[in-house]
């Protein structure tokens, strides 16, 4: 079969593939624990469900404008003013099928073949593939000090004549690191001075812990007019636990939004009116669900971190936000793919290999599940790889004997 060069170069999303594998194992009745999924377990807000039901009951489920329905744009305008202290107009906004599509359409609008987009490592698994889909080149920027917090000097060293854009994802997937206010101020200033696009992937920005507040990159911008090259990405998937609704958005200058809209109009058209109405309900409705989810995740984080710290060989970074722990297990196994496969095969725990995020030897563990899953999942991991753990383990009525250490 003849495939395009781009098709041959793109691999499947490892996180989505693992989630599918978990569903298949569950359908077979296997007691799988899925630490790979980037998905809160809480229900979508009632206001979002009622809004979706209302439009379904009306029977008026029609095409939508390619850049989003007016009511959702109004809700995003209010949201942007509240959290970014920025007044924008409907022409500054595009609604897409999730934050992922918003980023993809933005990159298609700004990247030429062989131009580069930079992003700190560890990074979300889709950034490199998105750059490839545009004919561009993704350039990871690992901090020289080995920490999860990037430094402006690390970015400066990687920027060259082909650099077109920088993506900043804070709180970060997979590490959970919330980048410092000083770094955000520096990167905004740097991109303005170098005339680079700055894509702020803020999809987790209210799911932060320990009393931290979301950092507003817009407050550091000197270019606050239509010449700004800052692009704010957000959506309802994470903070409202509405992953399956697939509604995200971008806020940027009008010329760029127009180009993004033109592309999206041919790719997919406007997102479903039912799902957009649900997003309106979430943004305009009672907001207590966001804080409830955030508090639950912070408690889950504390439990997972304490359990992981009982493993002498595990180097545990305490995440500042999101719902992920990114743990260095290299003392047990250098290859994150081998370790991840071992955990699936031996104890039916699904994790994401760190190499997919640009960091070998690490494993990403989601703490978005139940407390029981967190406790049992970490117990299984410890039993599978820690020589100091007991030699036997029960999973339900099934007795396992460890014979590979």
UniProtKB/TrEMBL annotation:
Gene3D superfamilies associated with the record: Aspartate Aminotransferase, domain 1, Type I PLP-dependent aspartate aminotransferase-like (Major domain)
Domain spans labelled Aminotransferase class I/classII large: 31-381
Alphabetized InterPro entries for the sequence: Aminotransferase_I/II_large, AspAT/PAT-like, NHTrfase_class1_PyrdxlP-BS, PyrdxlP-dep_Trfase, PyrdxlP-dep_Trfase_major, PyrdxlP-dep_Trfase_small
Entry cofactors: pyridoxal 5'-phosphate
GO MF, any single term: pyridoxal phosphate binding
Catalytic activity, EC: 2.6.1.-
Protein keywords: Aminotransferase, Pyridoxal phosphate, Transferase
Domain of life the protein comes from: Bacteria
GO BP annotations listed: amino acid metabolic process
UniProt family annotation: Belongs to the class-I pyridoxal-phosphate-dependent aminotransferase family.
Protein name in UniProt: Aminotransferase
Source organism of this protein record: Melioribacter roseus (strain DSM 23840 / JCM 17771 / VKM B-2668 / P3M-2)
